[in-house]
Amino acid sequence: MPTAIEETVELPKLSNDEIARYSRHLILPEVGMEGQQKLKAAKVLCVGTGGLGAPLALYLAAAGVGTIGLVDFDTVDASNLQRQIIHSTATVGKLKVDSAEIMLKGLNPTVKVIKHNTMLTSANALEILKDYDVIADGTDNFQTRYLVNDACVLLNKPNAYGSIFRFEGQASVFGTKEGPCYRCLYPEPPPPGLVPSCAEGGVLGILPGLVGVIQATETIKLILGIGEPLIGRLLLVDALGMSFRTLKLRKNPECPVCGPNPTVTELIDYDQFCGITPPSEVGPLEVARDKAVTDLPVVDGIPQISVQELKRKLDAKEDVFVLDVREPHEYKIVNLGAPLIPVGEIALRTAELADKKDSEIVVHCKSGARSQRAALALKQAGFTNVSNLTGGILAWADKIDPSLPKY
Ligand SMILES: Nc1ncnc2c1ncn2[C@@H]1O[C@H](COP(=O)(O)OP(=O)(O)OP(=O)(O)O)[C@@H](O)[C@H]1O
Ligand SMILES: [Zn+2]
């Protein structure tokens, strides 16, 4: 395996302190002095400093990767700490890149941390990625996954990819000339409606640790040029069964970006579908949450109603039927006292709502994505007056009843 470091780079010397710090690496013949110097020369970009990015960046820093770039636009939220161990209680509210830098520098002050406090988009991705030797995508949404994949293919940079959902994870190395890319597997992103929002899906806190560490391992192997990288293989991790499987992947000759006749020749911004809009770029729905009332958009034929408007209707004792479409375990965390029919059961249980056919129905979930699907299902089943509560119960807790817990 050739190293991911450009062969022309002159390898930096190690100080005596560094020799002491990395002694357990130096005595491994597969790493040795030269390998450790390659690590010091290496520049790795971690896209996202969340669940995957946290262990990834920490292990890269511990291993002595000389330059670690961090891209993230978000701030640390208390709900991140269940898995994002690069952040801490003391840095809740701080920018994630600043919070991560504190931990990385504390662990290894010799590492250079470059902070990109921005959302990676088609406008800046090539410019940001071009200076790094290896890219490690630890983000949580399809838009960025395709963006990083395409940018890596266009720049010919390896992408140590990882992703997780609930109890399962995946890892691979994409973007190399020899191997397939993410689009070889999935040429186009799924339609937004089919993707559960990350915050709604849930994840076992340890799982991103497991997968992020695999990404870090692949990154280090790529830098050292040792072992068998996950090029052309997709590792599937099942934390509940604690099983690891690898699937062989082939380069797809019809791949729209790395195939011989590419149709994707520049970066694309797909619609965002994982609640990742940075505060500075809030879209119409988000803005609507703060507006008092009526001029909310209609999405796919479903009127969107704000929490303020629903509160006004309830206070005025208007005849509104509120329906919660989350899961029972979420209902136990917090609820508004509305009846519960989980979104997946709506189509089968419309008979229970037979007397509501012509009533005004407001559907809500945690943040508004599932309830939009439920509202569409109700509309298809013949309910004539269904609207979707924008922002869900989280918006209700934000704007109407701050005593409610947010999860
Ligand atoms: N295009 C992007 N540019 C920069 N950072 C991104 C981009 N897309 C996602 N991220 C960041 O990647 C990280 C993904 O990690 P993760 O899903 O564990 O965290 P989260 O988004 O805070 O979690 P949750 O959605 O459950 O609140 C987040 O910190 C997010 O801000
Ligand atoms: Zn491809």
Describe this structure in words.
The protein is of the alpha/beta class and 407 residues long. It has two domains: 16-248, Rossmann fold (3-Layer(aba) Sandwich); 282-399, Rhodanese-like domain (Oxidized Rhodanese, domain 1, 3-Layer(aba) Sandwich), CATH 3.40.250. 32% of the residues lie in helices and 16% in strands. The chain has 15 helices and 13 strands. It has helices spanning 16-21, 23-26, 32-41, 53-63, 96-107, 125-129, 142-155, 182-185, 198-201, 207-224, 284-290, 307-315, 328-333, 369-380, 392-399; strands at residues 43-47, 67-71, 112-116, 134-137, 159-165, 168-174, 233-238, 243-248, 298-299, 302-305, 320-324, 360-364, 386-389. The strands form two sheets. It has an eight-stranded mixed beta sheet, with helices on both faces. Strands 9-10-13-12-11 form a five-stranded mixed beta sheet. Helix 4 (53-63) packs parallel to helix 5 and helix 4 (53-63) packs across helix 10. The longest helix has 18 residues, at 207-224. It is elongated and about 75 Å long. The two termini are 45 Å apart. The model is unreliable at 273-295 (pLDDT under 50). The structure holds adenosine-5'-triphosphate (ATP) and zinc ion. Adenosine-5'-triphosphate (ATP) is lined by residues 48-51, 71-74, 80, 84, 96, 119-120, 139-141, 144, 198-199, 276. Keywords: ATP-binding, Nucleotide-binding, Nucleotidyltransferase, Transferase.
